[in-house]
Amino acid sequence: MSDALQALRRVFGYDSFRGDQEAIVEHVIGGGDAVVLMPTGGGKSLCYQIPSLVRPGTGVVVSPLIALMQDQVDALLAVGVRAGFLNSSQDFEQRREVEAAFVAGELDLLYLAPERLSMESTRNLLDRGKVALFAIDEAHCVSQWGHDFRPDYLGLSELHERWPDVPRIALTATATKATHAEIVSRLNLGEARQFVASFDRPNIQYRIAPKAEPKKQLLDLIRTEHPGDAGIVYCLSRNSVEKTAEFLVANGISAVPYHAGLDSRTRARNQARFLREDGLVVVATIAFGMGIDKPDVRFVAHLDLPKSVEGYYQETGRAGRDGLPSTAWLAYGLQDVVQQRRMIQTSEGDDAHRRRLSQHLDAMLALCETVECRRVQLLNYFGQSGQPCGNCDTCLTPPESWDGTIAAQKLLSAVYRLQHERGQKFGAGQVIDILLGKQTPKVTQHRHDQLTVFGVGQELSESEWRGVVRQLLAQGLLAVEGDYGTLLLTEASAEVLGRKREVRMRREPKRAARAAAAAKRKPAAEMPEEARPVFERLRAWRFEEAKNQGVPAYIVFSDATLRQIATEQPSTLDELAGVSGVGENKLAKYGEQVLATLAGGE
Ligand code: ADP
Ligand code: ZN
């Protein structure tokens, strides 16, 4: 058996490597450089942790996630790996201890914030010990166009010049070709072996629903499908974060807010609670989540449209790192499109920047309005192919596509007439009222009932018309501008009005995907019903144990491990050792307690 496999089994308690892990680990142990693109939950950590254990010296991990280093180190200490970190949160004495351990060769892994590495004192320190490898985690932070850019990452290109013999491994869950290329060029990793995994996350069920009453829809999702589960809810503004968190709490869901406007202590406390408690919901802006290692996040909900497919993929990817069934749910409506277009129009930066933002948004809208499998679309976006998955809303309850050409013509012609006969611009609400022939005060005031298009659209309901507007916007056949979201024709509109172009549209299925999805999914997947009470007992034991140690519950054992224990009910330490995630150290530390907990219920 190879040293790597031995370490995997003995230390981490796992049977075998997954996917590319083995090839990556062997390559780095052999001294090679690597760039690893692997989705969240794919198992990137082991790709540098195992080589750090096998190679002589200390693996130095560069990570931007200062707030999470303590947890990362605790997770390693829990399996008996000698690990430490150096960052600005420590006092002089704490740092000195870690430095001494490193120089004495007593550390397997050392986590560093990137700004530390640019300090000459840190470089001198590294020269006094032995570095086994450099791991550059969250390597997309080197990309200046990405939303996580960290200037300190640019300095990492010098690692190779200063330590030419030390292998480097850069890792990220960001998948676009552009980011990949930027990592390679900025970190001088052109010669490195490139490992690009499939970005499919089969355990995540993707669903995108029309937005009606988003908070209620969210509550319904939590109550019917995820009661007592941990989840992340993303909102665009601080205000809606606060309101949504209050709404959930008022309805008996334990939830906390997280956004940049909260003071740093509150933020840190809410994040710590999320990591440590079972079943807490965090309502957050996108400032929350990068590097959150919590494996049992069961759902990620978006109440506002993400700005790009990349962002959407990253955020939803925080669900289900443990491989168990999880939900990614997004509510999306016309107002989102209006709002985002406005934000792009008023954003700082040059035209090229705005164009890029528009392209990102267009791709996101295309994902929302597709009649194809969401997963296939997502993978295509990252340049990968896939088959219809059977685990997204369009696969579970296929929407019909319909010929929306006439509807499009009616709507565009209403916009045209307002503009050319009256010299007026209006938002979607007024245009739809005109099509429906509604005598509202605003219609009367502007004498819009005199227009030839007044009342010509009564075959569709108001919400169907909103769907038409949304889809025309998504397809670039209509544009929107200004604070009031006034509608404008585009060049492509002329083709529709001139009957030169057909318009296909998506009809929302009458029955939401939820019912079908919930029916298909076993409540606690892959665990027989009779194991459930045992699992709950184990969870209660884990909760106490984690609390006593002051670490997140998953550091004691993951849900996946507890499920397997509950299902197999081992009666000896030997049998317990066979469970995935029970390594040497945890067996010695918790074995007796687990067996006692199992026996205690009878
Ligand atoms: P990433 O950093 O890529 O998001 P992690 O390294 O956190 O993913 O791994 C995700 C989960 O999968 C963790 O709970 C980890 O312990 C588990 N895992 C990783 N590799 C294996 C493996 N070979 N066998 C079993 N579980 C694994
Ligand atoms: Zn699908």
Please sum up the structure shown.
This protein is α/β, with parallel strands linked by helices and 602 residues long.
Description:
- The protein folds into four domains: 2-196, 3-Layer(aba) Sandwich (Rossmann fold), CATH 3.40.50.300; 204-399, P-loop containing nucleotide triphosphate hydrolases (Rossmann fold, 3-Layer(aba) Sandwich); 401-507, Winged helix-like DNA-binding domain superfamily/Winged helix DNA-binding domain (Arc Repressor Mutant, subunit A, Orthogonal Bundle), CATH 1.10.10; 527-599, HRDC domain (DNA polymerase, domain 1).
- The protein is built from 28 helices and 17 strands.
- The chain has a seven-stranded parallel β-sheet, with helices on both faces.
- Helix 5 links the parallel strand 3 (83-86) and strand 4 (109-112).
- It is globular, with a radius of gyration of 27 Å.
- Adenosine-5'-diphosphate binds at residues 14, 17-18, 21, 38, 40-46, 293, 295, 321-322, 558, 580.
